[in-house]
Amino acid sequence: MFNHQKYGKQYFMPPTISYDWVKKETLEKAPTWCSVDLRDGNQALPIPMNLEEKLELFQLLVDIGFKEIEVGFPAASDTEFNLLRKLIDNNMIPDDVTIMVITQAREHIIRRTFEAIQGAPRAIVHLYNSTSEAQRRQVFKKSKEEIKQIALNGAVLVKELAEEAGGDIYFQYSPESFPGTEVDYALDICNSVLDIWKPTPDHKAIINIPTTVQIAMPHIFANQIEYIHKNLAYRDGVTLSIHPHNDRGSGVSDAEFGVLAGAERVEGTLFGIGERTGNVDLITLAMNMYSQGFDPELDFSQMNAIREKYEKLTRTEVHERHPYSGDLVFTAFSGSHQDAISKGMKYRQETNTEKWDVPYIPVDPVDIGRNYQADVIRVNSQSGKGGIGYILETNFGVKLPYKMNEAMGYATKKVSDQTSRELSAEEIYQVFRENYVEYHPNFELVDYYFNKGTGQEVTLTIQKEKEQIELQGKGAGSLDAISNALKAHFDIDYALEVYEQQSLGKDSAAEACAQIGISHQGEIYWGAGIHEDITAASVYALVVAVNRLEDALISQKETVK
Ligand SMILES: CC(=O)SCCNC(=O)CCNC(=O)[C@H](O)C(C)(C)COP(=O)(O)OP(=O)(O)OC[C@H]1O[C@@H](n2cnc3c(N)ncnc32)[C@H](O)[C@@H]1OP(=O)(O)O
Ligand SMILES: CC(C)C(=O)C(=O)O
Ligand SMILES: [Mg+2]
């Protein structure tokens, strides 16, 4: 039964709340990022990664710029143990990267963990045990004091083994299931663990506060972190870290608020892959900073390549709407968004603006290896003239007059409505050609030439159904002469209202596109022509416009009948 009364508050407020974090605006300095993809990410995969896949992911994380990487839970499986050995024995850990290994606070697991890191240039040993009220009562059936003792025994053993091993070993402790733990109790365990480790500013320990399962709003977490930050022992010898999950969908907010509240390090995964609803997505966090103008100290300039590799290695799929990295996150289908984006892009070009503020696009897609043409504006039945004009202009160099663009918008919408699907740039161009370049249901132009090179007297041949007809015309210029010939033959009158043209390529041999709008009784009829010769392009454009006017006149006559 769907019954909310079954549920209630399981989190604990800290004993005092200062809300200092609220007064800060944004994250200006990157926290220390620690990737837990190879551990928390991997332990959440239906088919965990094999050794080769883990090595490939490790390299990807290094390339992105992670300086701390949780490589695994070496006591959990041979694969994880062997990964550690492979990395260490083959000197595959860069000098500026520190690996981390996790262990439960259980003796045989801790010992096995130290075997796995033997000979590592540097390592963080991450000790954890569960501290929540629910787990104490249901899982461990132990008192607060007994649970604390598990952590302390683990901390003592970790310290002894590190001293025996020598080398550069750092310690991290996590009160796992923190969200359901009394905050002052969790703090007491952390401080007691620190009393054993006695960290110093030169050799810091890490206290890592997880939202193992997210059960409160992000401001609660921020208050908890601020309390811990202010009451942590050995504060200058401790890096305060957070490890948000995403059960309530607020992993990113937990992380951002947590850092405002005093955390200096964030653990998470790429794309938020992790237990249940995932860990916090480090890409989103880093890109959020980047889009505010702050250096995230991680490099996502090759986002698509990173995503493809990640999807392959983890056998997962990144959602097309996933922040920053999804396929569709820069794409606008809707008309008014497209209109604003295309105007914004144009404004940017014309003003040479340095700062990015194009409407509807929080970061420049090009910065992360995406592409305006393919990613930004895509057309379906929700789209409008702005986007369609943008596609014609950026893909094909065709820049339509304002009113013609509107007409082209309706023509395109009709097709996307009928087909109920997205139209590619090529399909939109085809709509343009069929409606404005190749449209001549009433007559076609077969040939034309100007008499005696004057350009003012023309002989043209048109084809009406199967009949070829020769027409003569005179005018102030070549287009005028042809226009007069057509007016006389069809016994129509119109004014040449709009004439625009543009070159479709950069070299002189490139084609030109001309657009012509003729007006008759308050309506404008459009045509376009594409040809290497601009005069020819204009003539063909006029022929289409006159064909459209003829259409209208024929249907008027039919209505009268
Ligand atoms: C929130 C997190 O993500 S924490 C990380 C969790 N990650 C993983 O568990 C992935 C890897 N883990 C594993 O492969 C296995 O759990 C192993 C190999 C580590 C241990 O396996 P097993 O010994 O078979 O037992 P299992 O994991 O079920 O452990 C349960 C026992 O450990 C105890 N335990 C669990 N966590 C802890 C802890 N952090 N500290 C001390 N004891 C613990 C339980 O009380 C239970 O004790 P019991 O045997 O007396 O009932
Ligand atoms: C072990 C801890 C840090 C963890 O992964 C969690 O609590 O989510
Ligand atoms: Mg976790």
Commentary on this structure:
This protein has 561 residues and is an alpha/beta fold. It folds into three domains: 23-314, TIM Barrel; 335-433, no CATH class; 444-560, Double Stranded RNA Binding Domain (2-Layer Sandwich). 42% of the residues lie in helices and 18% in strands. The protein is built from 18 helices and 14 strands. The strands form three sheets. It has an eight-stranded parallel β-barrel with strand order 1-2-3-4-5-6-7-8, surrounded by eight helices. Strands 9-10-11 form a three-stranded antiparallel beta sheet. Strand 5 (168-176), helix 7 and strand 6 form a beta-alpha-beta unit. Helix 4 runs parallel beside helix 6 (144-165), helix 12 crosses helix 14 (385-396) and helix 17 (478-490) packs parallel to helix 18. The two termini are 68 Å apart. The model has no long low-confidence stretch (mean pLDDT 95). Magnesium ion binds next to loops.
Report on the biggest sheet.
8 strands, parallel, barrel
Query: Radius of gyration from the CA trace?
Result: 34 Å
**Low-confidence residue ranges:** none
The separation of the N and C termini measures 68 Å
Q: Which ions, cofactors or small ligands are bound in this entry? A: acetyl coenzyme *A, 3-methyl-2-oxobutanoic acid, magnesium ion
As a percent range, the share of helical residues equals 40-55%
Number of helices: 18
Strand content: 15-25%
CATH architecture of the largest domain: Alpha-Beta Barrel
Q: What is the fourth-level CATH superfamily of the largest domain?
A: Aldolase class I
Q: Tell me, what is the CATH class of the largest domain?
A: Alpha Beta
Question: What overall form do the CA principal axes indicate?
Answer: elongated
Total DSSP E strands: 14
What strand order characterises the main sheet?
Answer: 1-2-3-4-5-6-7-8
Organism: Oceanobacillus oncorhynchi
Protein name: 2-isopropylmalate synthase
GO molecular function, one term: magnesium ion binding
Cofactor: Mg(2+)
